[in-house]
Amino acid sequence: MAVAANTPIELINGVYGRLAENVAIGRERLGRPLTFAEKVLINHLRDPRTQELERGRSYADLDPDRVAMQDATAQMALLQFMTAGLPEAAVPSTVHCDHLIQAKSNARIDLATANDVNAEVYDFLESVSAKYGIGFWKPGSGIIHQVVLEQYAFPGGMMIGTDSHTPNAGGLGMIAIGVGGADAVDVMTGYPFNVRWPKLIGVKLTGTLAGWSAPKDIILEVARILTVKGGTGAIVEYFGPGAESISCTGKATICNMGAEIGATTSLFAYDPAMSRYLASTGRADVAAAADAVAGELRADDEVLADPASYFDQVIEIDLSSLKPLINGPHTPDRARKVSELGAEAKAEGWPMEISSALIGSCTNSSYEDISRAAAIARFAHENGLSAKTPLLVTPGSEQVRATIERDGLLADLEQIGATVLANACGPCIGQWSRSDIAEGTDNIIVTSYNRNFPKRNDGLASTLAFVTSPETVVAMALAGRVDFDPTVDSLTNASGEQVTIPVPAGVELPPKGFTSGENTFIAPPADSSKVVVKVSPTSERLQLLEPFDAWDGNDFLNLPILMKAKGKCTTDHISAAGPWLKYRGHLENISGNMFIGAVNAFTDEIGQGKDQLDGTTKSFPDIGKHYHEAGQGWIAIGDENYGEGSSREHAAMEPRFRGAKVVLTRSFARIHETNLKKQGVLPLVFADPKVYDLIEQDDRINVLGLADLTPDVPVKCQIVKPDGTTIDFEGIQTMNDEQIGWFKAGGALNIIRQRQGV
Ligand code: MIC
Ligand code: SF4
What we know:
With 758 residues, the chain is of the alpha/beta class. The protein is built from 26 helices and 30 strands. The two termini are 23 Å apart. Bound molecules: alpha-methylisocitric acid and iron/sulfur cluster. Alpha-methylisocitric acid (MIC) binds next to helix 4.
């Protein structure tokens, strides 16, 4: 299959050609009008006539139009794909090199360094892409989600991506779902993508954004309302008169950060802003095709008139009264108005000075974002102001970088002291070689990113990170303080005058059009028979995968508790990023980070606990290694929303590799729960959350009746106390028959391998 640097119009026409018929089937089967998300989902069902459509209950088999993978997750996804025995990927797929570039000096030097230090991994990804008909975006092309929005996304399409912010493409009306690599392998091997038929949350937007308020403030407000787990199992569909007032890239910002509330995805209906974006990015043909079916690229009128009857939950936000927000630290749902941050910082004893300000990331690095940030910078320079903190800028893509350079926007930012980094994730994922602050020094950073978990940006536990809009970040960089509210406060310039920053005026799309910059795409060759995929057996960064063992048919008895996590335990806590990104293609080496960020509920220590085999205190990864070598299966216990954040399946594969049998929590984040199922680890949820408190360090856990696992029937479990007494409890499991099959086979990949006869 030829994979190009865009989605062929024939593919899009195919999707639109069957849309009306499938929507009619959906309306008839459900006996009611449909929301936009339902239309897109039904149009991608493998069998729209017979699949069950019960929200929050049935599992659906869907056929996405595309797969996208980024370099930090593609390695494991493609190592798994390689063991499946297929000659090429069954659907158009792409790999994007964005996560592995470390930000240290500037774009040119950092990219050259990345090409050098990551050569082995880039060579592997380029050759494995060539071998299996996958498009390859070289380092420097930009962040996966921005490139997908510019090149591949289309209204009414459906894709999956091995990154939790894949829903960014919802800004262009696509159902785009973040998944682990094993889900991508399903689709690339021609099997359907299986996901729970989602619940639907409707967000009605009225009014228009005014003053300093930006699209980012809408999603920060939604995060405040719904919290980090409020979107779990749901698609968030935005509609209402306010929706049309937001640019396509602004919509993408909102959908992108839907990952922070655990939503399956988020999307907006097709509208003129999307059409303008398509035309500006060289896809007027896609806009024309979408125009022809525009009536079905939106919710039915009845739904818009009476949303409460069709959505499981409806939230209404008046954009005209929405004030600029800033969320953090440590969690993206801790919101307050920018104007209130100073008082809160004082009350909490946080530093008042900002140590660094950063704009960019897949959430906020569009032309419009940079143009608003640059407008502030231009004004500041003309009025004798400059940044009082380091200001780091990561453009979202090579196309955005080349265009903002041509249009003088980068120069505007550099004039106030900004440093332009490579078109990559950089400090958003701990790829920030920061030397100005040492561990233990409390300091505040403000970013236009999406996540602000501890240690996420610079690896320092003492950094407090806040997320806000790019324009607010730049204004705060000029002030250098958290108690600055750009909507009312003024700044003193170099000549001692008071300067008030005017409301930043952005430009939705480049008036002279985009310029594509350097060509960074490599299409796979027509004949890949001569391509050799090289993995050195002595490599520290890449390791071929061995299939995991199948379940041995026995109940799990006397499992020691390797780790009981207290409070937030995100995938960053389970499998840290930053320096560990270099081992993303080497399961054994990356297992050295297993649970190093988790807070031990028995001791409050981070990353270490008691080895039950020898009674000593060790790091969690060392305990895992010891249990593995001793053949001792074990269990991990988690709190609420366990596995929040990233799609990285390493957070499931490392425990699996080291012998985890069960992960038992108060609740799971969607992608992580699926990743555990896919790898053959049993995810269970306490039927009674209070049982979590009864589990002590030296207890063991029994998980019984596994031979009779039945969809949705809770599993009988016991806490075994050191004196042999037991406490019975139930573990809820949410597996369907197919997923029970994955568990028994020792992971979904073993089933694919059996089917392929390898
Ligand atoms: C993230 O933002 O946390 C990441 C890094 O992009 C992850 C993917 C990864 O861990 O490689 C995500 O969002 O899924
Ligand atoms: Fe990259 Fe950050 Fe976006 Fe993840 S959230 S894809 S690390 S820019």
